[in-house]
Amino acid sequence: MLDHSISHIVKKLFDIDLEKVVIEFPKEVSFGDVALPLAMQLGKQLKKNPREVAEALVKAIEAERLPEIAKIEVAGPGFINITFTPEYLIGQIKGGFEKFQQENTSKKILLEYGSENIAKSMTVGHLRSNIIGQACANMYKALGWKVTSDSHIGDWGLQFGKLIVAYHLWGDKATIEKDPINELVKLYVHFHEEEEKDETLTDQARAEFTKLEKGDIENKKLWQWFYDASMKEFHELHKILDVHHDTELGESFYLPWLNHIVELCKEKKIAVVGEDSSVYIDFGKGKQPLYILKKDGSTLYSTRDLAAIEYRLTEYPDLKRMVYFVDYSQRPYFEQLFATAKKLDWYCDFTHAYFGLVRLPEGKMSTRKGNVVYLRELIAEGIKRAQEILEEKKVDLPDTEKEELAKMVALGAIKFGDLVHNRASDVVFSWDTAISFDGDTSAYLQYTYARIKSIMRKGDYEEKVVNKVVFTLPIEHHLLSFIYRFPTIVARAADTYEPHVLAQFLLHVAALFNQFYNDVPVLKANNDDEKETRLYLISQVANTLKNGLGLLGISVPEKM
Ligand code: ARG
């Protein structure tokens, strides 16, 4: 509506066809609900002073007497700040994600996250991939995209040759069956120790892997056993984390297409066959080539990734975006991979949504193996700590509910401690900061939500639209204005695959609410209309916190 009127005015005043009216949020919420940078943009185009352009625009918009606008003014170098009527904001809030959903209905995105390795424990690195990836998948769904999530399981490669050799030499079936992943990891580590003393082990491993590649029945059986045991464990952890994948097409899934990929690259003349008969993609002088076939004829990680891309583009026609949630150590690799896809004329917006490492301050809470932290232990420790805090805070709930709550708080802390930071930066995870009730934590948000719910119960408030909005204080409008931003914030966070934008926003909302609740009586408001308005406001804060945290994969308690 506003968009239309503005485009119309711009056409009339300056004879310019606007593609889109860009809407920003002003730095200070007291400046207005939205800020349009339009005059700056037009000023450049028209070679005019942006302030003058802004003034002309404001005058024309005012003349239209749009019912949703309560106040409009020029600010700074030429921003147009608009304050809407509360009724308009409430209507927009009620519409939720509708506007975005209409815009995005036919857009398809594939998000790849998780991608654990068979016979290896899930690490905090895979944890980040799952948490950030799932949060993005949730956001894209809310925004109306057609979302597919896939886990590119690491289930192929020489490591299986090594495992098979190790199993034959030192493995014990019964022990492995009791605790598959840990035992397999032990075997793998032991293999590497022994390999340093005995080089023939490497050749044996190669031979076993070749047998596996050629379809040897015994080796295939072992592989399947390792695969099933590992997947069982990953699935258990995914369930705890509320992580879902539509498909889990591991590297081995793409084996039937690997020859074709190598041939295709040769045919299109983008691959070079080396003297040793290895095959690689050449990116020019001084640049690292990307190998897709080893000299012994075996394929690589990259070959399987190329096959995966071709498969996905065929399986999901008109796929618009393909996103990989993988740590930043693989950045150079993904750059090569995407460049190769481009050479192959495979069209799609590829993104490597990379993330930094998680570090733990030394301490006995983490069982470390190298720098690996096992997720199960992380979760167990979190629950223990959450229980302690709930005791300390004298949270008054029946035991079973308290247990559930401890789990919710612990998982929230683990996820939020990750999602609140820019994904590209390294995270130093510390329980003391992650699980506290104050500061930038999920426990603080969960607590704020439960607090609002308790006020609503006391006020006998049932969710409904207010009959009569009575605002007496600026902070009431500010709160409403913030709630109105929610879907746009989600859209921004999704667009750059940065859930921290949403996490930070939720912290702002909670802070503003707490300021409001400190200063303004809700249940003891002056009259029924005021009370009703304020209860409506806080109920919307609660909704925003619940929905926002929900998108981040975090649940909220009704009582705390
Ligand atoms: N399995 C790999 C690892 O744990 C990550 C796979 C990333 N995805 C991909 N398509 N290459 O390091």
From TrEMBL:
The keyword Phosphoprotein does not apply. Its main location: cytoplasm. Residues 4-84 form the Arginyl tRNA synthetase N-terminal domain. Its EC number is 6.1.1.19. One of its GO terms (cellular component) is cytoplasm. Residues 445-560 form the DALR anticodon binding domain. It is an enzyme of class 6 (ligase). Pfam families: Arg_tRNA_synt_N, DALR_1, tRNA-synt_1d. GO terms for biological process: arginyl-tRNA aminoacylation. It catalyses: tRNA(Arg) + L-arginine + ATP = L-arginyl-tRNA(Arg) + AMP + diphosphate. SUPFAM superfamilies: Anticodon-binding domain of a subclass of class I aminoacyl-tRNA synthetases, Arginyl-tRNA synthetase (ArgRS), N-terminal 'additional' domain, Nucleotidylyl transferase. It is found in: Cytoplasm. Keywords: Aminoacyl-tRNA synthetase, ATP-binding, Cytoplasm, Ligase, Nucleotide-binding, Protein biosynthesis. It comes from the Bacteria. The keyword Secreted does not apply. GO terms for molecular function: arginine-tRNA ligase activity; ATP binding. PANTHER family: ARGININE--TRNA LIGASE, CYTOPLASMIC, ARGINYL-TRNA SYNTHETASE. Monomer. Belongs to the class-I aminoacyl-tRNA synthetase family. HAMAP family: Arg_tRNA_synth (MF_00123). This is Arginine--tRNA ligase. The lineage of its organism: Bacteria, Candidatus Abawacaibacteriota. The gene is argS.
